[in-house]
Structures are given as structure tokens and as C-alpha cells.
């Protein structure tokens, strides 16, 4: 009986030590992957647009017992087009002062460029042997800049974000996570009205940011759901696989809706 009890204590102690190494770290990592985005911006077009994008980013995680700090920068780019008309050719005819006409043509396809910078803090609300629950807050800057023959989907968002994460340790080398993030308030910037990108005596960039509005959940909603798996390769190195679903809706001045699926792989280094 004494040997059984001693073995049990050793197993618990061994897993507790493994947990201690997991709970205190600084990690720097890089991720690559792809994402597919669907968006509609009725301010400029009733069509649904799709973007197939490649994505990359850097991230930093710092953990000291129950306190967690994290920072992330990511960007994505790819082709943007309405699926039903992706190969359609558009023509533009112009006439100069001498009456000479010229016709230019281009595809409907455009491009996207999006970037996100976020820094946050979270605290372990529940801390068990094999699972944890944390809640926190973050500041996020998000830029979406699609370029097409219309100004569809262009938006800059600076938000205060509420965060929650559940973490499960399958072993001292395997970790599963589920994260939920949503903005509670912020500043959103979109073009002020359809068909106009500037105002009298105002440059293009100034006109764009002049349309900045304070938003809450009444006018702007966004949900980020992230699922992740991490495997510890060695004392310093680890690999991750992550899936993220994002849905957003902004109704100022007119409705812009978007949802996207992200799949990435990452490599991190602990120091």
C-alpha cells in the first residue's frame, strides 16, 4: 500500500513540475498559413466578394504564473473578386480634347491587404492541474484595405477587446486551446459616403479619417473564435496548428459584413 501511495505521489509531483515549466515562459514565434474571406459592402456594391489570401505573422507570449502578456502582428494579401464575375473584363473609354478615343480594359479581380496589431493582458481565473481558464483585455488595431475598381470593404478599426481562453494539457508536451475575442468599444473609420473619397479643401487621407466614429456593440460587432494545438518539441522549441473563424458587422454609414476562415502553422522559441 505504501509503494502504491508513493508511486501516486511521484506521478502527481512529476506532472506538477511539468506544469510549472509550462506556466512560466517567454515565447517568440512566427506563423504562416492561408485564409479565405467573404465580404459585402452595400455602400459600394451589392455583390459578395471573395478573397483567397496568404498570411504571415509574428507573436510573443509571456507568462508568469497567473499573469499573461501577449502581442501579435499579422498580415494577409491575396486576390479579391465576386465569384460569379471573377473573369469578367471591364472596359473604360475616354476621349481627349482632340476627339481621340482610347479604350482601356482590366479584369474585375482586385487585391487585398489586411493587417492586425494586438497587445493584451489576461489573468488565470481558474487554474487546475490539467486545465485552465483565463480572461483579459486587449487593444487591437485592424486595417482592411481591398483594392478593386470600387472602394469596397476599406476600414480601419481601433478597439478595446475582451478576451477569454480555455487551455487543456493533454500531457506535459501537448496543449489544446480555445479562445474567444470580441471588441466592446472602439473607433471605426470608413469612407463617409458612397462614391466620394474626398471633401473640398481636404486631402484623400484626411477625408478618410475625418469619417472616424466611436462605436460600441450597437453598431459594430466582431467575434473571433480560435482553436489551437501546440506540441513541445524540445526544451526551447514548439510547433502549433491553429484555426480561426472571424465574423464582423459594421452598420455605419451602411452595412459591411465579413467572415473568414484562417488556418496557420507556427514555430515558437522559449527563452
> What distance separates the N and C termini?
42 Å
Radius of gyration: 24 Å
The largest sheet, given as strand count, sense and whether it forms a barrel, is: 10 strands, antiparallel, barrel
Q: Please state the overall shape, judged from the principal axes of the Cα atoms.
A: elongated
* Strand tally: 13
CATH T-level fold name: Lipocalin
SS summary, helix count = 2
Helix content: 10-25%
Tell me the CATH superfamily: OMPT-like
> Strand order across the biggest sheet?
1-2-3-6-7-8-9-11-12-13
Order of helices and strands: HEEEEEEEEEHEEEE
Q: State the name of the first-level CATH class.
A: Mainly Beta
User: What is the strand content?
Assistant: over 45%
- The CATH architecture is Beta Barrel
Q: What's the structural domain tally?
A: 1
Write the layout of secondary structure elements.
Elements: H1 2-23, E1 24-41, E2 49-64, E3 67-81, E4 89-95, E5 101-107, E6 110-127, E7 131-144, E8 155-169, E9 174-189, H2 204-210, E10 213-216, E11 220-232, E12 237-250, E13 256-270
Antiparallel strand pairs: 1-2, 1-13, 2-3, 3-6, 4-5, 6-7, 7-8, 8-9, 9-10, 9-11, 11-12, 12-13
Task: Describe what is shown at a glance.
This protein has 271 residues and is mostly beta strands. It contains two helices and 13 strands; from the N terminus they run H-E-E-E-E-E-E-E-E-E-H-E-E-E-E.
Describe this structure in words.
Helix content is 11%, strand content 63%. The model is unreliable at 1-21 (pLDDT under 50). It has helices at residues 2-23, 204-210, and strands at residues 24-41, 49-64, 67-81, 89-95, 101-107, 110-127, 131-144, 155-169, 174-189, 213-216, 220-232, 237-250, 256-270. By secondary structure, the protein is mainly beta. It is elongated and about 80 Å long. The strands form 2 sheets. The chain has a 10-stranded antiparallel β-barrel with strand order 1-2-3-6-7-8-9-11-12-13. The protein contains 2 helices and 13 strands. The two termini are 42 Å apart. The longest helix is centred in the first third of the chain and has 22 residues, at 2-23. It has one domain (25-270): OMPT-like (Lipocalin).
Amino acid at each position: 500500500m505504501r509503494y502504491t501511495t508513493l508511486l501516486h505521489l511521484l506521478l502527481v509531483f512529476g506532472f506538477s513540475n511539468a506544469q510549472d515549466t509550462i506556466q512560466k515562459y517567454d515565447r517568440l514565434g512566427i506563423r504562416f498559413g492561408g485564409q479565405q474571406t467573404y465580404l459585402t459592402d452595400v455602400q459600394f456594391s451589392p455583390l459578395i466578394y471573395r478573397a483567397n489570401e496568404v498570411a504571415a505573422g509574428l507573436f510573443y507570449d509571456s507568462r508568469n504564473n497567473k499573469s499573461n502578456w501577449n502581442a501579435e502582428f499579422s498580415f494577409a494579401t491575396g486576390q479579391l473578386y465576386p465569384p460569379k464575375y471573377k473573369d469578367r473584363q471591364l472596359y473604360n473609354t475616354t476621349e481627349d480634347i482632340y476627339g481621340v478615343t482610347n479604350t482601356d480594359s482590366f479584369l474585375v479581380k482586385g487585391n487585398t491587404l489586411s493587417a492586425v496589431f494586438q497587445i493584451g493582458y489576461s489573468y488565470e481565473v481558474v487554474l487546475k492541474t490539467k486545465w485552465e481558464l483565463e480572461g483579459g483585455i486587449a487593444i487591437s488595431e485592424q486595417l482592411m484595405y481591398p483594392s478593386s475598381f470600387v472602394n469596397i470593404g476599406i476600414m480601419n478599426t481601433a478597439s478595446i477587446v475582451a478576451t477569454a481562453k480555455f487551455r487543456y494539457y493533454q500531457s506535459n508536451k501537448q496543449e489544446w486551446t480555445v479562445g474567444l475575442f470580441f471588441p466592446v468599444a472602439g473607433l471605426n473609420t470608413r469612407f463617409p459616403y458612397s462614391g466620394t473619397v474626398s471633401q473640398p479643401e481636404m486631402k484623400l487621407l484626411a477625408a478618410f479619417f475625418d469619417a472616424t466614429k466611436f462605436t460600441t456593440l450597437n453598431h459594430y460587432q466582431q467575434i473571433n473564435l480560435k482553436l489551437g494545438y501546440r506540441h513541445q518539441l524540445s526544451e526551447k522549441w514548439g510547433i502549433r496548428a491553429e484555426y480561426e473563424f472571424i465574423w464582423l458587422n459594421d452598420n455605419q454609414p451602411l452595412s459591411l459584413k465579413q467572415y473568414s476562415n484562417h488556418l496557420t502553422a507556427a514555430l515558437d522559441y522559449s527563452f
